[in-house]
Amino acid sequence: MANVAAYGREKIKSRVSWAIASFFALLWFLITLIPFAFMVLNSFRKQFDMLTQGVFRLPDPWYFENYPRIIQNGFFGYFMRSVTIVTLALILLLIISALASYPLARMRFKLRSFIYGGIVAMMSIPMHVTLIPIFKMTNWMGLYDNLYSLLGPYVAFALPMSIYILTGFMMTIPKEVEEAAVIDGCNKDSLFYYIFIPLSKSGLSTLAIYNGVTMWNEFAFANTLLQSAAQKTLPLALGQFKGEHSMDMPIILSVLVLSVLPMIILFIVFQDKLVKGMMSGAVKG
Amino acid sequence: MKKTNSLAKTLSRSTNIAAAVFLFPAVAAILFYMIYPIIDTFWTSQYNWNGISPNKIFVGVQNWQTLLGDANFWSAFWHNVIVMVFSILLQIPIGLLLATFLDAGGKKFNAFKTVWFFPYLMSSVAIAFLFNYILATNGGLFSSLAQLITGKRTTVDLLGKNPQALFAVIGVMAWQYTPFYMVYFIAGYSTIPTTTYEAAVIDGTNRRQYLFHVAIPLLRPIFRTACILSMIGSLKYFDMIWNMTQGGPAGGTELMATYMYKLSFQQFKMGYGSSVAAGMFILITLIALFFQKIFVVKEND
Fold first, then answer.
1. Span B159-173, mean pLDDT?
2. In terms of domains, do A249 and A183 share one?
3. How far is CA A157 from CA A130, A134, B132, B222, B224, in A?
4. Domains of chain B, each with CATH number or no CATH
């Protein structure tokens, strides 16, 4: 009988804790969602309506002119520059980090652990320490206020983490595959092209997604190295639009919506890849 | 001409050469964009320089002496420490709770997971702009809510006054970064083999006991990494604060990075800005090493 009572108590306890957990889950769901709702709903209002209607009611009437207006005001330019720089940086990053990870994962050579340790240590370097010198170097190279000045810093700062993850990934490729390829006549270069790159595809795509999100949102380098509106990337577009429409909150909110939307769509499509990328960094760290 | 060992030697030499070729681009990029700039920051910290003019004035350790006595810098550092403590206290426990909920609930809560992750996809700049509006006294969410509740024209000024401005910012950071730690802990749970759970069930544990006595203790290494990441992240925090408050009001949300940026790129004191950057680098490295030591010692006990 005592056992039955204890079992009943346990059941109630577990029900209660489940209820508390669900309540908390729902609460955090709302905390996450309300700012997004605020952003989306108010981007469909007129500035004046926002002041008179307050923020809790649905837009009445729905006002669709904010979006065409920001698109006419050069939004597409910022967007395409961001796409360009992120694409180029990702291509370079993937090539360079794959090249570097291969010997770190698979060759025994002098200084291997020194180089690997050095690269891993670079993961925690704050970029702000390098900001003034990189600003200087960009000036010397004549690249100041040029979109492509971001390419070097973006690739370099993404390298340590990417090499770390990719080296770990390549280490898991079975030695037997490599040996079989060597017997079939592969040398080190062809091993890399025909064995390691194809087998690392999922690791590479994970890196692309993870670093793509980071680069798409990067602010400090872009703000330091770019000055004119014709060179600025999407994160800087917000400041630019604010300068032009300083009091028009709905306009700025629609810029926000359009700059977040691609990331959310990408995330919903590639959710597992992104999460996996963060995991492979997490579990080994 | 000795022939002994020559094959092994040739092989190892060719491996060295191949490795050097493969590693060259990465090492060159890191040397050029990370190592050299760090050295240059320390070098520039000995000068007074406005960033453009050719005449740099050598002042030796004077900038460093100024830094040691600079109340603005140390108050910024103190804010970084507060941000660090609250980031760890808020983001990591909430992240763990969310991950635990998802782990216990299984696939049917995937919609929760997706939505919970959204804030992490937004750029810090976008978050800064959004929350500037949400926290605004005029038409902001909190002020409108206060008006709704009290029925009077009241305003809740979270960003305009100290010390609440810093805590408002800490709240926004928690909103932004909690999803990151959630994913971290989901990853942690996924590394626990199902056999561990089965063994625990056979030994007669219920879910709660399994959670507190088996699963969470197994997550210890993940906790350690999460804490170190959160610490380093809070010490170099910049983007969101810069776009939201620029360190204001009256320096109430000034952090080391915003102070450095202000000095270097608004007041063009690049020499002293470099000292601040270098000081920041030293402090972050020391704190990271110190905590790594502590965690390692704890783990060995």
1. 90
2. yes
3. 10, 12, 29, 24, 23
4. 69-300 (1.10.3720.10)
